[in-house]
Each structure stands twice: as structure tokens, then as C-alpha cells.
Amino acid sequence: MVSASEPDRCSPTSRTPSRLSSSRRSQSHFSSWYPRKRAKLLLSLIAFLAFVFFHNWFMLLRLQHQPDPIPKPTLRSSSVSLSLQNKREPKDLWQEPFVPASSWRPCADQRNWEPNEGKNGYILVTANGGINQQRVAVCNAVVVARLLNSTLVIPKFMYSSVWRDVSQFSDIYQEEHFINYLTPDIRIVRELPKELQSLDLEAISSVVTDVDMEKEAKPSFYLKHILPIIIKNQVVHFVGFGNRLAFDPIAFELQRLRCRCNFHALQFVPRIQETGALLLKRLREHSGLVGPLDRYLVGPFAESMKEKSESNAKKASKYLALHLRFEIDMIAHSLCEFAGGEEERKELEAYREIHFPALSLLKRTTKLPSPSELRSEGLCPLTPEESILMLGALGFNRKTHIFVAGSNLYGGGSRLVALTNLYPKLVTKENLLSSAELKSFANYSSQLAALDFIGCTASDAFAMTDSGSQLSSLVSGYRIYYGGGRMPTIRPNKRRLASIFMKNSTIEWRVFEQRVRKAVRQTKHVQTRPKARSVYRYPRCKECMCRTD
């Protein structure tokens, strides 16, 4: 992997002569031998580090500057080098398999049942996590309300020490639209009736936490264990509610309701839509283009993106959106290591102690896979350095416009240097929007994430670096649902890539390029939703989308 050189884990300062000092017989010999030995170790270590540093520097330099004409690839140095400046992009780089992908169209808006009266009682939900986890929880709660013939109270969002955002539902989504759009499906109210507000829900055992429920519980669990609570107490309060409803088995219409909630009922508030439209306009360099997904993302503000002047003739700039899921919470939770040595290990362990205490306890009491084993299995997020190598190998040239979401990277902005050196047209929302335009979003990470969602979803191509990310899952699903077969998503197989990256110092760039393209191409095919997988990520299923062929 082309990255910063490995930290010094064998520094002479960490060695002591304690094992030798007990031998007083060799004291005089040791006094002359040890300095010479120590000097040799230091020289060897310095030489090794210099070699690693020079090797990595050389590869990054050659990625930026290709001699012209290109030498024959038989030489190792030339096989490592890559011209991003003049390299021709592969024909399918900005495409997905159109014919099979375009045969699917959205149809989750179709209903085949009568409205639900919600007469059994009320469901309260306090959803945890960030905006994307909360979005999933909201739609799962809608389905549970229909399943239990209960009334849903507008969900609340739990304050998280990780996200540090006090935003509630109406700060992010249009509450009125949510209620009205789902009225033919379930009954929704803004708050509990006054006679129920004074109840001590915990005292009457009406509070159900994630600990009380298995992950992805089946509908039968709710009918057996939750419905009796609602009928008895007239209310149940789900606290957390992260991924607590299974994707299979579930009735056809309930699954369709799930999709209807995610793709139709949840629309961002006008303030987010307006700023999102401004972001898209600047990403496309004021071309006046309205993308195929814009009206679903920014609503009426899509019209404001059209230029009234002659600039309509200006060709729109295609852009690639890259979600770098490399924030400290992901890094700490992964249990992987990223060449930061003891300082990094201490910092991440301290973070886990505060934010993931259960994981920290498990790490201390259980033998877990080592960081190297996790990496070889593809369980570590791609680093920014690995991400640029992937993009370069796929064929994105130096002129590519790149929008980076999740730019609050672990290690600081310096980790973006490798990206900006190779791709000077790389931007974030903080680059494109002024501090005044972002002022109302300051300290609201979920609302800022909504802007990232818009920027990624509307892009001409989207590249994820961690397939387990909720943002990447929701973005890719949205692009499938509304994209009409014209919105490609790059989904790297991290296990395959890990194997390739571990060997990239011993193979020519041409071979590295071929292997990366093969690994990514295998994930680009059009597939229907696998059993028990998320409809939010894989909406190509009969419940959410309809085939036209």
C-alpha cells in the first residue's frame, strides 16, 4: 500500500540493557560492545526507514508525473508510474450496465390496502445513531406501526456523544409531508394524548430497549411480545431501535411500505434543500443542468439551478462523489491499525472506552482477530491513500472533478493531501459553500450529513470506501431506485483489494491496475436484492421496484 512509512516500533529508546546488566562479569566488555551494537542497530533502522519512505514517495510522485512518451512497461519503474494527466478513461467508467439496470422502475408508491386506524395504541420511538441510522429506524417504525395497527408518534432522535447533534425530526425532514404521504398507510400524530403523557412508562414496563430485542427481529416477535404491551398500557416506547426489524420474512405490502417511507415520505426541509441545490449548482460549475435525481433530493429548488442566461450552453461538469468513511468513530470501532504506532493505539483505545465501552471490554476479555487478520479479511475501512490508488487504477484521470463526503478524517486534513496532489479538482462542501452559507448548519452534524447525502446521491458516479456504511448504503439504494440505470456506483470488494494492496510493492502498476479493475468490475453487475438483505440498499425487488421487460 502506498502510504506513510510504518512507524518506528523498534526504537532504540524503547530498549534497555536490563537483561545484560545482571552479568557483572562482562561489565567491561559490555561497556565497549554495547555502543557499537547500538550504533549498528540505529544505522540499520535509519536505512530501512529511509528506504520505505523513499519507495512510497517515489510511487506517489510517479503517479503524478508520467514521462512522455511512455516507456515500455517492461521496466519496473515505468510499470509503477501512471499518467493521470493524459490517461484515457475506460468507456464504462461513468456507466453501469444500462439495459438490465434500466429495466427496473420505482413503484413503491403503489398501494393495495385500506388505511390503518391505529386503534390498538401508540408507538414512541427514540432513534439512536446518526442521520442515516435514524432514517432506517424511522421507516422500520412505520412498518411496525402498520403491523400492530397502532398510531405512530413523530419519532425523536437520541443525542449521541459521537455525533453531538440535538437535531430532531422536524429539523431535518418535512413533518407535514411525512404525515400526509403516509396517511393512507398508518395514523401519525405529533405527540401522545394528554392522558398518556403523564404515565411513567418505565414503571409500567412500556419501555423496550435494544437490549430487550434481538437484532432484526421478525414480525412474529412484535406480535407476540410488543402487541400485548400496547394493548395493556396503550403505549410502548422503543429506545434505540437500531436495525430491530428483519428484512425477511416479511409480508409483501409491509416491505413495500418500508420502501415507500424511505424513497417517498422522507423529504429534507426547505432550508437543507435550498443549500443542497446551491451545492449541486457549484459542483456542476453553474452549467444550468438539472440532474435526474435533483427533484427528488431538493424538491422545488431544482428549478433554481437552471441558468436563465446564455450560460445554458455551457457543458456540465461531470463529478465523482467519494465517501471517505474514515472518521474516528469508524476507525476506533473497526479495531484496525493505520500505521500510527503506540500513540494511535492509545488514542483509539481511549475513544473506545468513552464511546464504545462494550467493545472495549470485549477487546480486553476476549481474544479477537489481530489488526492484520482484520485487514486481510477486508474488514478495515480503506484509507485515503488506498482510495486514491483505487481511483487511479480504475482510470479516473487528473482532470476528474471529485466531491469528498465525510471530510472530517481521522488524522486531520493532512490526509487529504495525497488526494489533492493527484486530483487538484477535489472539493468538499466546506470548499464550495461559504462560512455564511454554512453558518446555520454549524454544530449540527446530521444536517451537514444531509448535504453530503445530496451531493453524493446526485453525482454522475459514486464511489464508496466502506460497504458497511449506512450513508453509502442509502445513497447507492437511492441511486438505484431513481437512477433509471444511469447512476453507477463503485463498490469495492475490500477483501480482494486488501490482498492486492498488500502485494502492490512487488507488482507492476499495469498488473495492479488490471487486478483492481477486475475486483471492482465484479461488484458492478446488476443484481436483485439477496435474501435477508436491506431494501434500502438493494431496492431491486418486486416489493420496491417493477420490471419493465
UniProtKB/TrEMBL annotation:
InterPro entries reported in the protein's UniProt record: FucosylTrfase_pln, GDP-Fuc_O-FucTrfase, GT106_glycosyltransferase
Nucleus listed as a keyword: no
Compositional bias segments (type: Low complexity): 10-23
Region annotated Disordered, chain positions: 1-23
Protein name, entry field: O-fucosyltransferase family protein
Native organism: Glycine max (Soybean)
UniProt record similarity statement: Belongs to the glycosyltransferase GT106 family.
GO cellular component term of the entry, any: membrane
Broad class of where this protein is predominantly found: membrane
GO MF annotations, alphabetized: glycosyltransferase activity
A Pfam family hit: O-FucT
Alphabetical GO biological process terms: fucose metabolic process
The organism's place on the tree of life at top rank: Eukaryota
Membrane topology label: Single-pass membrane protein
Keyword Transmembrane: yes
Keywords: Carbohydrate metabolism, Fucose metabolism, Glycoprotein, Glycosyltransferase, Membrane, Transferase, Transmembrane, Transmembrane helix
Pathway connected to this protein: Glycan metabolism
Underlying gene: LOC100805893
Localization per Swiss-Prot or TrEMBL: Membrane
Membrane-spanning intervals of the chain: 41-60
